[in-house]
Amino acid sequence: MTLTLIFVILIACPLEFTGAKWTYNGPDGEHNWSSNYPFCGGAFQSPIDFQTQLLRYDPNLPPIQVQNYNLSTNEQLTLSNNGHSVQLSLPSHMYISSFPQRYSAAQLHFHWGSSNLLTGSEHTVNGKRFAGEMHIVHFNSDKYPNISMAVDKHDGLAVLGVFIEIGEFNPAFDKFFKYMNGIKYRDQKIQVAAFNIHALLPARLDEYYRYDGSLTTPPCYPSVLWTVFRRPVTISRKQFMALATALYASNAQESTTVPLHGNYRKPQIADNRVVLVSFKDGDFTWMSWGILATITVASVLGLLLIITLVWCLWRKGSNTEEQKEKTNGYKLAEKEENISKV
Ligand SMILES: *[C@@H]1O[C@H](CO)[C@@H](O)[C@H](O)[C@H]1NC(C)=O
Ligand SMILES: *[C@@H]1O[C@H](CO)[C@@H](O)[C@H](O)[C@H]1NC(C)=O
Ligand SMILES: *[C@@H]1O[C@H](CO)[C@@H](O)[C@H](O)[C@H]1NC(C)=O
To answer: 243 with 79: CB under 8 angstroms?
Structure first.
């Protein structure tokens, strides 16, 4: 009887419950995730640093196309604090249409820095970390009935990653950032009116990094086809501060409050992976300037060399002429002398 009960509890409990708790700091921090979540210590992990030497330009990568992202304000979305991030639920009629299979939306969430360390993106570009990063999570709905069934399959998920930079105020982000005080504590949820999710994306959907990776949080399944847009979106400093200071990783009943910030995982090893890019390398403009400068300097040097050579030859030529004249003159004088002798 007791055994049956234990068995039922073990089977019925969701992964979050049977799985150990995890954090970004302390003994349950990312260095130790793999002791309870073996995939976190495995292959194809995310995020990674997009280093120039990993990038391969692929002219066949099409611009990202999404459908039904402009949601009606009649729809309700669930905004929640899950203790690791702030998450907005998304309806599955939103989807990515530019992949061979349909990937339907499930949720979006964020990773960010803290109020004194403004950088907290997960992916980095040649070591540069942005202020934050948004992940719009989609699952392969052609193959799997829901995200729970897709989450651990190699072709299960597709995530759109968006870098966030501090700059201009972003009205689209304010559609839900303004409700942040309603979900200060872990496990709090509120309903918010839907809006145009497309407005959260950067303007250029044709420039992105593409690679095979994983969930960036436990259980770290290597199930994600990553698309990280090259161009960041901006939010104002005030908006960033609201995100970085409003939330707690602890629930309302806990006596000690734990702030929720700095919730990003460190870059993972690339192994044998390459990152395909849909655009010419970021250093390309810099490089073409370098090449241009080199060509200019080389041309000027070459021209100088030619001028010098021509000048030398001319000098040499006129010298021999002079010498010839001199010799001739001398010979002539000699001849005249000889003649006069005769
Ligand atoms: C890692 O996690 C395991 C299991 O939760 C725990 O026993 C161990 O003490 C942790 N190790 C470190 C270095 O914190
Ligand atoms: C989004 O849909 C609303 C109507 O629901 C419309 O008024 C608005 O112009 C649309 N926005 C864009 C960018 O298409
Ligand atoms: C997902 O689909 C599976 C298989 O159809 C089903 O058993 C499960 O209850 C579904 N899960 C959710 C969360 O809807």
So the answer is: no
CA-based nearest residue to 158, from 104, 112, 115: 104
pTM score, whole prediction: 0.80
| 84 catalytically annotated | yes
Domain ranges, ordered by start, for the chain: 30-283, 287-342
Distance CA 199, CA 68 (A): 12
Pocket test for ligand 1, best of 23, 28, 30, 32 (most atoms within 8 A of CB): 32
* Cα-to-centroid distance, 28 and ligand 1 (Å): 7
CATH number for the domain running over 30-283? 3.10.200.10
Ligand 2 atom with minimal separation from the 199 CA = 13
Q: To the nearest whole percent, how much of the chain has pLDDT over 70?
A: 82
- pLDDT band for position 298 (cuts 50, 70, 90): confident
> Read out DSSP for 17-59?
HHSPP--SSSTTSGGGHHHH-GGGGSSS-S--EE-GGGEEE-T
Q: Is the CB of 75 under 6 A from ligand 2?
A: no
- Which residues have C-beta atoms less than 6 Å from ligand 1? 20, 27, 32, 35-36
DSSP-derived secondary structure for 106-149: EEEEEEE--SSS----SSEETTEEPSEEEEEEEEETTT-SSHHH
Query: 64-87, pLDDT tens digit by residue?
Result: 999 999 999 999 999 999 999 999
pLDDT, tens only, 114-151? 988 899 999 999 999 999 999 999 999 999 999 999 99
Q: Ligand 3, closest atom to CA 145?
A: 2
- Using CB distances shorter than 6 Å, the residues near ligand 3 are 145-146, 148-149
